[in-house]
């Protein structure tokens, strides 16, 4: 089929599913058809494009797309149309991928359920009374419901892996610095990383090869050669020698949903049957990831979000009498509750007198978590744990209790604090037929290992 045909079919499917799912904040129909025509023309002219040529993709709405609104699901950026293209979308377009729409998310990527979006609540395709996870919930539900083949998300504390787990798809957060963040709206700059969703490990490996790589426009982007991520996609581990997989001791047992625990143990048995050696590894500071994250991330967010003042971009409340009241009114009415909560926590943690007690302490804990991982990877190649202690919860269930919402990220956050790559792959269902995710973590820049283990398991 031609790219135009695939695009038309996809757009029709989206039309029929969106009234229930609300995965997208905007459908970029015109742009998609134009891009598809271009791909067909390039192919007709004999050009070998890439495996992504003509493939429909969704883009999280915190990734800037030239000429197309990029709202971060916030009122404060309601009419923001970026004058430039992010590096990741440019790379995908050059590879012939077709952008179908901008995906819904938690406002400024702050949340675990997609419910803090100022515009709409996205449903989980497995049970529409439940959340898709967050913050990249729209990107995950779109792939799960076949509204697109691959989608981009961002992951600061689990925002790709958690929704991948809740929606039963593959989600990878690469090593910090592997993928350019030029054009990604900043949340917590020492943690943010762009990654992607797909239905198969192979699709994820192919797509990561396209978006990874050094970018002079992003000073945190690493200058390295990108390996061939599809080279090790083979059915079991034996031909490549023994793979050692460590179960993170602190993640099993208490607090874990019964069915999540069962599915995880079954997945470990399966990995062993494929030829992996299984060990139990202790990461004693793993559980301090969550509290240290909720100092570091809001602190960085409070600084990053200072730029939304009604002057340079986005929404401005016109009712202010002077500059200061214009700022206050714009920010009061432009940001939602969760974003304001983070700004207040972050501003408090960074203020004089509190900095040492909170921010500095959190950074020290972060170092201890990094050391736990360093030590673990002297003993095993890959670490494994459930992606989330629970499966998808009901919409509205955790809204009144931010702490219980924060707890869903217990297993994913330490990975961001250490800058490591992590992948979530489907590993079964609970008694309500809701998907469960298996998280695999590797040392920095060993995405090839993650793909190898994930592919053999899948
Ligand atoms: N749920 C976490 C938060 O609210 C993680 C979000 C993310 O990774 N962007 O901060």
Features:
alpha/beta, binds glutamine, 11-stranded mixed β-sheet
Topology record:
Blueprint: H1 3-21, E1 24-27, H2 29-44, E2 56-60, H3 87-94, E3 98-103, H4 137-144, E4 150-154, H5 161-167, E5 170-173, E6 194-198, H6 201-211, E7 243-248, H7 258-273, E8 276-281, H8 289-304, H9 323-334, H10 337-350, H11 356-376, E9 382-386, H12 402-406, H13 413-417, E10 422-429, E11 435-442, H14 447-457
Parallel strand pairs: 2-3, 2-4, 7-8, 7-9
Antiparallel strand pairs: 1-3, 4-6, 5-6, 5-10, 9-11, 10-11
Glutamine binds near residues 110 and 111.
Can you tell me about this structure?
The protein has a single domain, classed as Amidase signature (AS) enzymes (Alpha-Beta Complex), CATH 3.90.1300. Helices cover 37% and strands 14% of the residues. The protein is built from 14 helices and eleven strands. An eleven-stranded mixed β-sheet has the order 1-3-2-4-6-5-10-11-9-7-8, with helices on both faces. It is globular and about 70 Å long. Glutamine binds at residues 109-112, 135, 155-159, 187, 297, 409.
Low-confidence stretches: none
The total number of structural domains is: 1
Overall strand count: 11
State the separation between the terminal residues, measured CA to CA: 28 Å
The coarse silhouette is: globular
User: Beta-sheet strand percentage?
Assistant: 5-15%
Count of DSSP helices? Answer: 14
H/E element string? HEHEHEHEHEEHEHEHHHHEHHEEH
Instruction: Just name the CATH architecture.
Output: Alpha-Beta Complex
| Widest β-sheet, arrangement of strands | 1-3-2-4-6-5-10-11-9-7-8
Major sheet description: 11 strands, mixed
What is the radius of gyration computed over CA atoms, rounded to a whole number of angstroms?
21 Å
Bound molecules: glutamine
Relevant CATH superfamily: Amidase signature (AS) domain
CATH topology: Amidase signature (AS) enzymes
- Supply the CATH class: Alpha Beta
- Name the structural class: alpha/beta
Approximately how much helix is present in the residues? 25-40%
The mean pLDDT is: 96
EC number: 6.3.5.7
GO biological process, one term: translation
Catalytic activity: L-glutamyl-tRNA(Gln) + L-glutamine + ATP + H2O = L-glutaminyl-tRNA(Gln) + L-glutamate + ADP + phosphate + H(+)
Keywords: ATP-binding, Ligase, Nucleotide-binding, Protein biosynthesis, Transferase
């Amino acid at each position: 089929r031609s790219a135009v045909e695939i695009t038309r079919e996809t757009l029709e499917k989206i039309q029929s599913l969106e009234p229930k799912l609300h995965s997208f904040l905007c459908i970029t129909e015109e742009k998609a058809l134009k891009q598809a025509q271009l791909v067909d023309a390039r192919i007709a002219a004999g050009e070998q494009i890439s495996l992504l040529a003509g493939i429909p993709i969704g883009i999280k709405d915190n990734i800037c797309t030239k000429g197309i609104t990029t709202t971060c699901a916030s009122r404060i950026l309601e009419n923001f149309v970026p004058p430039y293209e992010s590096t990741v979308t440019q790379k995908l377009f050059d590879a012939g991928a077709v952008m179908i729409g901008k995906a819904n998310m938690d406002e400024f990527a702050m949340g675990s359920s997609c419910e803090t979006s100022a515009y709409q609540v996205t449903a989980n395709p497995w049970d529409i009374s439940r959340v898709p996870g967050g913050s990249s919930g729209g990107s995950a539900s779109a792939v799960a419901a076949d509204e697109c083949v691959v989608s981009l998300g961002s992951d600061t504390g689990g925002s790709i892996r958690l929704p991948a787990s809740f929606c039963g798809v593959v989600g990878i957060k690469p090593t910090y610095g592997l993928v350019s963040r030029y054009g990604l709206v900043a949340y917590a700059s020492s943690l943010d990383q762009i990654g992607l969703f797909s239905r198969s490990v192979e699709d994820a490996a192919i797509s990561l090869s396209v978006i990874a790589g050094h970018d002079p426009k992003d000073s945190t982007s690493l200058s390295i050669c990108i390996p061939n991520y599809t080279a090790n996609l083979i059915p079991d581990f034996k031909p490549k020698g023994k793979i050692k997989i460590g179960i993170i001791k602190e993640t099993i047992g208490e607090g874990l949903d019964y069915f999540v625990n069962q599915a995880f143990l079954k997945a470990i048995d399966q990995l062993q049957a494929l030829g992996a050696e299984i060990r139990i590894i202790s990461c004693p500071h793993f559980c301090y990831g969550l509290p240290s994250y909720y100092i570091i991330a809001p602190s960085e967010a409070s600084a990053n979000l200072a730029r939304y003042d009604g002057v340079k971009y986005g929404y401005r409340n016109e009712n202010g009498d002077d500059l200061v009241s214009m700022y206050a009114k714009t920010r009061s009415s432009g940001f939602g509750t969760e974003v304001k909560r983070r700004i207040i926590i972050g501003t408090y943690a960074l203020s004089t007198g509190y900095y040492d007690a909170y921010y500095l302490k959190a950074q020290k804990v972060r170092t201890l978590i990094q050391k736990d991982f360093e030590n673990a990877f002297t003993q095993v190649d890959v670490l494994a744990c459930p992606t989330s202690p629970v499966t998808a919860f009901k919409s509205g269930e955790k809204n009144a209790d931010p702490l219980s919402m924060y707890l869903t990220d217990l297993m994913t956050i330490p990975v961001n604090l250490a800058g490591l790559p992590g992948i979530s792959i489907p590993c079964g269902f609970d008694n309500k037929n809701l998907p469960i995710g298996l998280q695999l973590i590797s040392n920095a820049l060993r995405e090839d290992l993650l793909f190898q283990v994930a592919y053999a398991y899948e």
